[in-house]
Amino acid sequence: MLSLAADNGFRRVAIIHDDAITANAVAAGTGRLADLMGLETVFCSPYRKATIDFTAVLDDVAGAEPDVIVIASSHLAELTAFTRQLRRSRVKPQIVACYPYGLLPEFYRDLEADGEDVFSATFWDAGLARPGNADFVREYVAEYGRVPTVPSAVGYAGFSLLHAAIGTAGTLESEALRSAFLSLKTQTILGGFSLMSSGLQAGMEPATIQWQDGKAAIVLPDSLSSSQPRIGW
User: Fold this and answer.
1) Among candidates 216, 229, 15, 189, which has minimal Cα distance to 103?
2) Are residues 16 and 104 in the same domain?
3) Which of these, 70, 61, 62, lies nearest to 4 by C-alpha position?
4) Local structure of 68: helix, strand or coil
């Protein structure tokens, strides 16, 4: 999403987040990536837990005049409250991204038109052309009568990787499994899998979605996109 901002000449980034592990990681990573891309972080601040009224936060953000707003929260209700109030504020960014729950159908269902053009990221989508994905979706629908969710896909991929690691290690002993995982380089329905020596995932490229006409359209990367990103708020 920041690459899209840079490509369109937008330079000023505001980051708002709750004080929790996931949101703090998103905020820190966004700030570092913005620096690497030559963008300016003009506002970066946590907000108080369980905030529902973001008036004061939006007043501070307005003074920074951002082109891009990134909001990260561990709570869906806070993401939707911020987005709804942003729509009615004097802040007029060109790009808005909500992490991590901006990808959920419930996000758009709660916001409806206020959720239009919001960006988020996803590890998985039923329509992504990744190895085994079409088979997974077809078999899941046949078994459960509905399209799988992201957690279902993550669980399936995780157990597939565990099965592969056990096959390589030939044992359930933890150190042997760790070595097997570190040497494992493969493709799953989530994309590439390879680990750094620290255990961090380095092989997967998440997709960027944007809510367009009520649907979560894949807009980045180009190799996976089903729609062109829309700029403007």
Assistant:
1) 216
2) yes
3) 70
4) strand
Indicate the residue type of 220: L
The three-class DSSP label of residue 144 is helix
| Residues contacting residue 121 through CB under 8 Å, at least 6 positions apart | 1, 97, 99, 100, 103, 206, 207, 208, 209
In sequence order, the 6+-apart residues with CB closer than 8 A to the CB of 127 are 218, 226
Alpha-carbon distance of 145 to 170, in angstroms, equals 36
Alpha helices in the chain (DSSP H): 2-7, 21-36, 55-64, 76-87, 105-111, 133-144, 150-169, 174-183
Q: What is the DSSP string of 161-205?
A: HHHHHHHHHSS--HHHHHHHHHH--EEETTEEE-B-TTS-B-S--
Q: How much is the pLDDT for 51?
A: 93
Mean pLDDT of 53-78: 96
Give how many domains the chain has, as a whole number: 2
pLDDT over 90 for what percent of the chain? 84
Examine the domain organization and report whether 117 and 173 are in the same domain.
no
142 in the same domain as 106: no
Residue type, position 7, single letter: D
For residue 179, the enclosing domain spans 133-193
